[in-house]
Amino acid sequence: METTTPLQQCPALILNADFRPLSYFPLSTWTWQDAVKAIFRDSVTVVSEYERVIRSPSWELKLPSVLALKEFVPTARSPAFTRFNVFLRDHWSCQYCSSGFKTHELTFDHVIPKSRGGRTAWDNIVAACQKCNTTKGNRMPHEVEMYPVVEPRQPTIFELQDQGRRFPPNFLHQSWGDFLYWDTELVDS
Predict the structure, then answer these.
(1) Co-location of 66 and 115 in the same domain
(2) Range of the domain at 120
(3) Is residue 31 domain-resident?
(4) Is residue 163 part of a domain?
(5) pLDDT single digits (tens) 160-169
(6) SS (H, E, C) the chain
(7) What pTM did the predictor assign?
(8) 20 within a domain of the structure (yes/no)
(9) Is residue 100 part of a domain?
C-alpha cells in the first residue's frame, strides 16, 4: 500500500561501499531527487526503500531509504579543525564548569592565551561557556585555578564519529537503524 508521505520527508541514507555511513555528523543523506538520479546513473545499490512510490508515464519506483555507493570513497584520516568538531569532541560541554550547552551558547577558549604564545590548535582549544571564558579571560589556567576537565587533544575520525552517533538528527527512518549502529558493540543483557 502506497503512503502519501511528502517527498521532502524521504531522504536517503548514504552508505559507503563497505556499508558504513559516509559520515555520522552531519549524517550523510541525499534528497529524494539526488537519490533517484544516482539510481539511474547506476552508481548506487538500493538497500532499503520507503513505501512511497513515484511514477512517470512509463515507470514507477519506490523511493530508496538507504543507498550504498558502488565505489568506495576513502574517508579523511584526520578530522578538520573546526569549531563544530571542537564542540563535538568536548560533548557540547564547557571544559571549565562541565555544564552542557547549545551550540550558540558556547565559545572556544585558548587554554594558553594567544597573547601568551598559545596557538589555535587542537591541543590548546576547548569549548567554554561565555561566563567561564570571560572569567578566565587572558590569564593562564594556574593564575585563575581554571583547568580544562579533559586535556585538549586532536581526536581521531573514529572518536568524532562515535560521538556523532550520540547526537542523532531530528529525522531517523526506521530502515536506517541497522546501518547507523551495526558496528556498535553488543552487550550481554
Answers:
(1) no
(2) 83-144
(3) yes
(4) no
(5) 888 877 765 5
(6) CCCCCCHHHCCEEEECCCCCECCECCECEECHHHHHHHHHHCCEEEEEEEEEEEECCCCEEEEEEEEEECCCCCCCCCCCCCHHHHHHHCCCECCCCCCECCHHHEEEEECCCHHHCCCCCHHHEEEEEHHHHHHHCCCCHHHHCCCCCCCCCCCCHHHHHHHHHCCCCCCCCHHHHHHHCCCCCCCCC
(7) 0.65
(8) yes
(9) yes
